[in-house]
Write a structure and sequence with these properties.
Distance between the termini: 13 Å
Order of helices and strands: HHHHHHHHHHHH
Radius of gyration: 19 Å
Strand content: under 5%
Shape: globular
Helix content: over 70%
Structural class: mainly alpha
Number of strands: 0
Length: 284
């Protein structure tokens, strides 16, 4: 990977990670178009550390409040100072933990598929179009009445299962969770906010695990360009998060729906024309 490739892919990662259009699909597609190879699952996971660091900064006050109140609700805290589990922030802490379990478990069980089979571009095309349609239907026909304070354990698990689908490039982590949130009747802003918070444990765990595998020899990335791409992804993602939260408070998700469908059509044409190869050529 060249330094130019790293700059380009870092920009793409930062721009697409929190929009419901699949950052992993964009890295897979543009990595091959401009870098002559799929940058690989390890590169994707590590650069996502940069984007999630942006979430950490933007939501810092919320995260500290949730963590501190969750900690104060644990059984070993003295009863006199212990918070009830019904406390909204303590409850949100548990919701994030429960919602993170599906992607953690499936990520380990399906690791070989994630690195190879799931990166087939025909699968990506199908997921881009399918989940674009599902997002459009959920956003068009579901009510906007529920806030995060009304989240149930069932909803947390369903959110988690939707996030786990993002192990397949083209689904989109934010797209899957936002679609589920809208289908459950959450407001656009609530669905997006929980999507950001829910992603943090899984993305940091996945990224740090890939860093460990790189240094232990299990995976390969070009270290310098990957670090540069991660830093760029962080800076761009910070701006995208602030813009996206303002956007969804007043607008629908339909522009992203049409973008996903259009991208799926373009990639299908490129595959049929031989400009893209369906099977991943990532360096491992």
């Amino acid at each position: 990977m060249t330094w130019f490739d790293a700059i380009l892919l870092g920009l793409i990662q930062g721009l697409t990670e929190f929009l419901p259009i699949s950052s992993s699909a964009h890295l897979r597609i543009f990595g091959e178009l401009f870098g002559n190879a799929d940058p690989g699952a390890a590169f994707t996971a590590i650069t996502q550390i940069g984007t999630e660091t942006a979430v950490l900064i933007v939501f810092w006050k919320d995260i500290v409040r949730i963590l501190s109140r969750w900690w104060r609700s644990l059984p070993f805290i003295p009863a006199a100072t212990r918070l009830p589990n019904s406390d909204p922030d303590a409850r949100m802490g548990w919701m994030i933990i429960v919602g993170s379990l599906p992607i953690g478990i499936l990520g380990l069980l399906l690791q070989d598929w994630i690195d190879t089979t799931f990166r087939n571009l025909w699968i990506t095309v199908t997921m881009l179009a399918l989940f674009g349609v599902l997002l459009g239907l959920a956003d068009r026909f579901s009510p906007q009445v529920r806030t995060l304070e009304k989240m149930s354990w069932r909803d947390a698990i369903l959110y988690g299962l939707a996030q786990a689908l993002a192990l397949i490039p083209g689904v989109s982590r934010s797209g899957g969770t936002i679609t589920m949130g809208r289908a459950l009747g959450y407001t656009r802003e609530a669905a997006a906010r929980y999507s950001f918070l829910l992603a943090m444990p899984a993305v940091f765990a996945s990224g740090l695990y890939k860093v460990y595998k790189v240094f232990s020899g299990g995976d390969h990335v070009d270290v310098g360009p990957t670090i540069l791409a991660t830093v760029i992804a962080f800076a761009v993602a910070w701006a995208v998060i602030l813009w996206f939260l303002k956007l969804v408070s007043t607008k629908s998700y339909m522009p992203f729906v049409w973008y996903r469908i259009g991208l799926a059509i373009v990639v299908a044409i490129l595959l049929l024309a031989g400009a893209l190869t369906a099977v991943s050529t990532a360096v491992v």
